[in-house]
From TrEMBL:
Organism: Streptomyces humidus
Residues that hold Zn(2+) according to the record: E147, H213, H234
SUPFAM superfamilies membership: Composite domain of metallo-dependent hydrolases, Metallo-dependent hydrolases
Protein name: N-acetylglucosamine-6-phosphate deacetylase
GO biological process, one term: N-acetylglucosamine catabolic process
Cofactor(s) named in the record: a divalent metal cation
Database matches in InterPro entries: Amidohydro-rel, GlcNAc_6-P_deAcase, Metal-dep_hydrolase_composite, Metal_Hydrolase
Reaction(s) catalysed by this chain's protein: N-acetyl-D-glucosamine 6-phosphate + H2O = D-glucosamine 6-phosphate + acetate
Keyword set, alphabetical order: Carbohydrate metabolism, Hydrolase, Metal-binding
Length: 405
């Protein structure tokens, strides 16, 4: 999404070969508070056999390598629906850049990541879709999210206005085809000419239609939902505010049980009261925490390029140099988790749903990820009592070795 200016910082090198697993092929993580779909189990255990979570061994059977994680939390690996990059690299860059950004977010607990593009020329987006689809086919990415160019110039945020266009279904189909079955979501302003037809096309093709960067009215948003839109792209941001006479898209998206609402919980994009409103009204089963991260995630402050636009990151907040619009975030999902529990006081089980189960279900991958259940991938995050990240496992391999001292 963005390219760092200069060489004032270095990132940990990306790798497609995470750190080796410790111990035997069978591992037993014991003593933690384990968050399961049915609730939290104190002094629980998770058994891992190869790349999968296994049923607990019968009494007296060999248990495998025991790892004592007492005093910690074990939660499912995070699933990020909306992420543009990190570690100084972008999902709109080369394959090496994509893997570097992906590795950065894995180190912060995101074991399943959808790569988001940013508004650009159609030919550029088509080429990038081809590159990202190859990485998705290899199992590195969970798919592709196209954010733009079919968005409103009135709510463009950090997208280049010169590259925006109405959502022509033929061009939408061109992007879907370029993704070779790996397109997972497309954000569009459904009130624009061609918007509703594009939503119907996306629904027919099994691609999530997301309402975002929109200037739609309440009534227009209801029409989009009826046509098949099922996600609110970073609810509240880049759309008209909630009004008592003109409720706009926010009310329509919150009230419909078919819609999952994305929230960026970094303390900048949303006031805590707005976050609470969304959770209370949509309910914990319809919220998905996202990062909307750009290159600076996992690195720090400095000057970056977001497509053709210059971005200044100061104290962790990314804004366009010209105009000052927020330009994505520097968030990682472990920070979103900790803030949700310690600042927003959301129950841990509801936070886990918003970070793992809900987005996994939305993507249609909840048969393999999103919860700690036998038969699913051994994707998990280890947190201490203060909800600080202490370990990350993906498919039975420690991406970040447990820090238990």
């Amino acid at each position: 999404m963005a390219t760092p200016l200069g060489a004032r910082r270095t990132a940990r090198p990306a790798t497609t070969h995470p750190l080796p697993a410790t111990g035997a092929r069978r591992q037993v993580l014991a003593g933690a508070r384990v968050v399961l779909p049915t609730g939290t189990v104190a002094d629980g255990r998770v058994t891992i056999e190869g790349t999968k979570i296994a049923p607990e061994a019968p009494h007296g059977a060999p248990q495998g390598a025991l790892v004592d994680v007492s005093g910690h939390w074990l939660v499912p690996g995070f699933v990020d629906l909306h992420n543009h990059g990190g570690g100084g690299a972008s999902f709109s860059g080369s394959a090496e850049d994509v893997l570097k950004a992906l590795h950065t977010h894995r180190l912060h607990g995101s074991t399943t990541v959808v790569a988001s593009t940013v508004t650009d020329d159609m030919d550029v987006l088509v080429r990038q879709a081809g590159l990202l689809s190859e990485l998705a086919e290899q199992g590195d990415l969970a798919g592709i999210h196209f954010e733009g160019p079919f968005i409103s110039p009135c709510r463009k945020g950090a997208h280049s206005e010169a590259l925006l266009r109405d959502p022509d279904p033929a061009e939408v189909r061109k992007l879907i085809d370029a993704a070779r079955g790996r397109a997972r979501m497309l954000t569009l302003a459904t009130e624009l000419p061609g918007g509703l037809d594009s939503v119907r096309l996306l629904a027919e093709q099994g691609v999530i239609a997301a309402v975002g960067h929109t200037d739609a009215t309440y009534e227009q948003t209801v029409q989009a939902i009826e046509a098949g839109a099922t996600v609110a792209t970073h609810l509240f941001n880049a759309m008209p505010p909630l009004g008592h006479r003109a409720p706009g898209p926010i009310a329509a998206l919150l009230e419909d049980e078919r819609v999952t609402v994305e929230l960026i919980n970094d303390g900048t994009h949303l006031h805590p009261a707005a976050l609470e409103l969304a959770f209370r009204h949509a309910g914990p089963s319809r919220v998905a925490f996202i990062t909307d991260a750009m290159d600076a995630a996992g690195i720090g402050d400095g000057r970056y390029l977001l497509g053709p636009l210059e971005v200044e990151v100061s104290e962790g907040v990314a804004r366009l140099v010209e105009g000052g619009s927020i330009a994505g975030s520097t968030l990682t999902l472990d920070r979103a988790f900790r803030r949700a529990v310690t600042v927003d006081r959301i129950p841990v089980e509801d936070v886990v749903a918003a970070l793992s189960a809900n987005p996994a279900r939305l993507l249609g991958v909840d048969d393999s990820v999103g919860s700690l259940e036998p038969g699913k991938d051994a994707d998990l995050v280890l947190l201490d009592e203060d909800f600080e990240l202490k370990g990350v496992m993906r498919k039975g391999v420690w991406v970040l070795d447990p820090q238990l001292a």
